[in-house]
């Protein structure tokens, strides 16, 4: 991180003091004035101000994250679509955008089965060998889209793909989800990973 400029320094100091005092909205405002948008997003989330969190994520250049917060946490599909960045077909970015767009479509009343193509793509990515940027985000957003569509079979398939792709912790997340959702403890056979893969 670069050192703050002379103009930014007082805002950073004020933000730090407000944060220590528990005045998180004021801290977020000061971090934003200092141009420290990730910090502003962090404290606005801690304050429960999700709309400001999304706005700060957008200012920080994390447009897909901002759009996801708008639609999934605030239920504002219109704001989410406005927050989406230009189409980027870089591996991963395009699929994350499709997940955001699908979550918007569900919020606007799209049929549940429309989630199947994008979730199939997510599952293919999670289960494939090789490094994949934002792996945990694919799983989290894929599960959220499946749940929003009440397609619990697709939730299970998404977790299974992550297990198959070598994410050892995915099995426990799958068990916790089944326990929370259905009150049942499930047994998950140990998968043989396709390859060792890093996580985002």
Describe the structure.
The protein is mainly α. The chain folds into two domains: 1-61, no CATH class; 75-200, no CATH class. Helix content is 64%, strand content 0%. The chain is built from eleven helices and no strands. The chain has helices at 9-20, 24-33, 37-46, 50-59, 63-73, 77-83, 93-107, 116-127, 135-148, 152-164, 168-182. Helix 6 (77-83) runs antiparallel to helix 7 (93-107), helix 7 (93-107) packs antiparallel against helix 8 and helix 7 runs parallel beside helix 9 (135-148). Residues 196-200 have low confidence and may be disordered.
- C-alpha Rg, in Å? 19 Å
Distance between the termini: 20 Å
Largest sheet: none
Order of helices and strands: HHHHHHHHHHH
Form type: globular
Q: Any low-confidence stretches, pLDDT <50, length ≥5?
A: 196-200
What is the number of beta strands? 0
**Relative helix content:** 55-70%
Average pLDDT number: 90
SS summary, helix count: 11
Number of domains: 2
**Strand residue content:** under 5%
What structural category arises from helix and sheet content? mainly alpha
Secondary-structure blueprint of this entry?
Blueprint: H1 9-20, H2 24-33, H3 37-46, H4 50-59, H5 63-73, H6 77-83, H7 93-107, H8 116-127, H9 135-148, H10 152-164, H11 168-182
Helix pairs in contact: 1-2, 2-3, 3-4, 4-5, 5-6, 5-7, 6-7, 7-8, 7-9, 8-9, 8-10, 9-10, 10-11
Using brief descriptors, characterize the structure shown:
200 residues; globular; mainly alpha
